[in-house]
Amino acid sequence: MIHPTRTNLLMIREKGVSVANSIRILKSRKQALTREFLETTRPFLNSREDIRARYGKALAGLALSLGHEGKTFIESITLATERDFRIEITDRSIWGLKYKEVTALDLPVRDPAERGYDYLSTTNHLEECMLQFEKILEAMISIAEFEGKLKRLGDEIIKTTRRVRVLEERVLPGLMSQIRSIAEHIGERERESYCRLKHFKRRRGQEDTIKRSLTKPVE
Fold first, then answer.
1. How far apart are alpha carbons 14 and 72 in whole angstroms?
2. Confidence band (pLDDT; 50, 70, 90) for 216?
3. How far apart are CA 217 and CA 183, in angstroms?
4. Alpha carbon separation from 129 to 64, 66, 113 (Å, rounded)
5. Which residue has the higher pLDDT, 215 or 89?
6. Whole-angstrom Cα distance, residue 82 to residue 85?
7. Between the CA of residue 19 and those of 25, 162, 166, 169, what are the distances in Å?
8. d(CA 203, CA 83)
């Protein structure tokens, strides 16, 4: 139990103001993170849908290519198109929240002339198949960036929500209760002091009256 003094009352009031400010800051942070989460969700979902659609087209094109060119020719094309594909992972921050950003250092989608084989000897089915697979790679890089960012944002939004709830439902009400209790105790003590002082003055006045009557000369 905190000693009910004016000093402690002022200290708790300042703490209450600090907690209220913290709640306001945390709510602003939560709103900013939620807005960023929603803005990131849209391209993330679009990328997933894009991969699903392109994957179906790529498999259909691959099946047709295997029927026209044959497995041996497709395998030789695969060896010719191999490359070192590099990505860069960079640290980013939103409202103090750190996450990883994935960036491709090379273009996933290449011109047919850059794939390392004579594209004039292939069919349109094979060219479309390879284009779709390269598009899938491009979309997967975007998903890798969005997925990591979304997970960090989602976890931080949950943590911030819990902090706000604890401050609003436990810490701040507890401080307000202490403020009321100390204020009531100080008020009661001041009323008692006022009554004692008033009683003392009345007694002092009565004693002065008696003294004056005793010292008054008899005529």
1. 78
2. low
3. 53
4. 9, 11, 15
5. 89
6. 9
7. 10, 15, 11, 12
8. 105
How much is the CA Rg of the chain, to the nearest whole Å? 39
- What whole-number distance in Å separates Cα of residue 61 and Cα of residue 49? 19
Which residues pair with residue 116 across a beta bridge?
A: none
**Structure pTM?**
0.62
Topology of the domain comprising 6-173: Helix Hairpins (1.10.287)
The token pair that represents 84 in the structure block: 């070192």
Residue in 90, 80, 131 with CA at minimum distance from that of residue 107: 131
Q: Which residue, chain included where needed, has tokens 């008020």?
A: 187
DSSP output for 139-191: HHHHHHHHHHHHHHHHHHHHHHHHHHHHIIIIIHHHHHHHHHHHHHHHHHHHH
The torsion of the CA quartet 51, 54, 58, 61, rounded to 10 degrees, works out to 170
Residue 117 DSSP symbol: S
CA–CA distance, 48 with 42 (Å, rounded to integer)? 10
Where in the chain are the domains? 6-173
Query: Which has the higher per-residue pLDDT, 204 or 171?
Result: 171
